[in-house]
Amino acid sequence: xxxxxxxxxxxxxxxxxxxxxxxxxxxxxxxxxxxxxxxxxxxxxxxxxxxxxxxxxxxxxxxxxxxxxxxxxxxxxxxxxxxxxxxxxxxxxxxxxxxxxxxxxxxxxxxxxxxxxxxxxxxxxxxxxxxxxxxxxxxxxxxxxxxxxxxxxxxxxxxxxxxxxxxxxxxxxxxxxxxxxxxxxxxxxxxxxxxxxxxxxxxxxxxxxxxxxxxxxxxxxxxxxxxxxxxxxxxxxxxxxxxxxxxxxxxxxxxxxxx
Length: 259
Hints:
About 0% of the residues lie in helices and about 25% in strands. It is mainly beta.
């Protein structure tokens, strides 16, 4: 086990509990970051070593050292459902700026009816205009991720739009779920799921524009317009019937009830 420096703090020897004494001859290195526990009035007695933690035993306040100062960890208030810890930033009613960290967490207000919070992380242009929306990250200038509806989720990527209830876009770019509940786009680029309970796993410019429970696994420029259809891959394939299966290839078109 590798030794760690313990940020230069004293480790008591055989029952010595005076943490204000210099390091003793039996100093031991531990494999965890140091956490100091003392009354808040004694905070100034300790150097704010980077990464060190101070727990005030009398007030339960928490501080983290950055090498120069002790920074108190702030917790979101009662009108925010997100309770998280940030250093060197600011805490406002609906937004937490995280100081030197590139992370931005945009927290929507909780209604009097107790509706679930929407949380958008990543680029400032990401936004959740929904109940219980989650955007985990991603986004870019002019290409923010937008989640609408009830409990939609966007994992990351850029210029993504999840516009239906209980929908999910995992990642990629320029993907869209257009008002289709329970639809999923796993990733890829330019894919559009426009019918409920449908799935596009990935690929490029694939579209499900009608029919429930259809699946396009991948490929490019494939289109499904009927219920229970499946396109495995390939390019420029079209399935407009009921229960149609196109395994792959290109320029295949079928409109039969089942094939």
